[in-house]
Design brief:
With 456 residues, the chain is of the alpha/beta class. It contains 19 helices and 14 strands. Helix 10 crosses helix 19 and helix 18 packs antiparallel against helix 19. The longest helix is centred in the last third of the chain and has 18 residues. This is Multiple sugar transport system substrate-binding protein. InterPro entries: Bact_solute-bd_prot1, SBP. Keywords: Signal, Sugar transport, Transport. It comes from Microbacterium immunditiarum.
Length: 456
Amino acid sequence: MKTRPVFAVITALAFAGALVACSAGGGGGDNNGGGGGGDSASNCENEIKKPDAPVVTLWAWYPNSELVVDNFNEANDDVQVCWTNVGAGGEAYDKFQTAISAGSGAPDVMMVEADRIATFQAQDALVDLKDLGYEDVKDNFSDGAWKDVSVGDGIYGAPIDGGPMGMIYRTDIFEQYGVTPPTTWTELEATAQKVKDAGGPFFASFAANQPAYVTALFYQNGAEPFEYDPANEGQIGIELNSPEIKEVLDFWAGLVEKGLVGTEDQFTPEYIAGVINGNYATYLSAAWAPGYLQGAGVGEGADAGVWATAPMPQWDPSSPVAINWGGSAFSVSSQASNPELAAKVAFGVYADQASLDDGWQNQIIFPLNVNVLDSDDFLNYEVPFFSGQQANKDVYVPAANAYEGMTYTPLGQYYYSALTDQIAAINDGQVTGSEAADALQEDLVAYAEEQGFTVN
């Protein structure tokens, strides 16, 4: 098969057909010699506190971004942040990709989810922060948090928030059927069967539209789906049909076949209605889930006061593995004319105590800064959604501290799409878990080779 150079096709892997043009102007002509990328200071959504200072432009979609930026600008005399919300997630990435392709129009600093960093890095769109202040802040985050924003030996993001995982459950359903939170996957299956046999609801969900969650489950069982280091130019390791991954997929395929878990897509009105109505005994999710659930109306009516959380079930409880779902960072664009100032912003914005406190107290982020994770206020916080349970101390902080990170690659978005297809096939009864893993491996290897990678 004729292959194309890897770099030439990376642009298309996750962002092919981006239709939304970036409105940002290039050059930063009126931003006082600041970063030089993205919107000029005249387009800020925040007020520049010190107009004589150079300006760094920032794209971010955190709900409290204006407050966070104001806190930074008040505290700094040598640089100011000009913040713009160009949309969340995919919308922002499409605009960033347009700017990358055009060679101008990107912001100096960009909010990026961890699983997107490798794709942008492969296009030389991000700056390595290792020599731009990383040493000053590295002890503020765990090794796992840094691994998630690393590509090879480079650091391409300043960690902000994450999603250490636990098992959210309904205490009313558990009490009704006389069950307790399972500590192993074997116990989960037995508990789910007991609840079903007594006429109860689905115990959990195995949704095809959550490939990132399923990938976390792979890591929990000791899998290493990918090896990738841009220093080994054009090479990638892919192992998606390992015994560990087959065990995970066969386990969930068995739960689906026995009718113990639901398969409808998550993050839909129908799924949320089912959560509210008690169609599920648990929601295996991340520390950000209470904020999301409450925002969707969960816990406000008949299901108020029934929620609690417990650690994730384990394959081997004597050797537990912490996993993570989600998380964002601030990355410096290669279009920034002053990378040093941009890096100061990336590492400094959303790093002060007032901003971090506002973030976690209002359930906007689960902070990864160890100064917050270790604080008494955070550890002992009685979470209202969990009826006063100290969920951070019980579940999420231990998981965050023990998390060892994942390896992301420029193939990430294609992989998610392919895994979604295979989960759907499992749920439809078309393939076993092992067959899905073999098909996934074949698909990803072929695609990587088509893109010009040498697969190890």
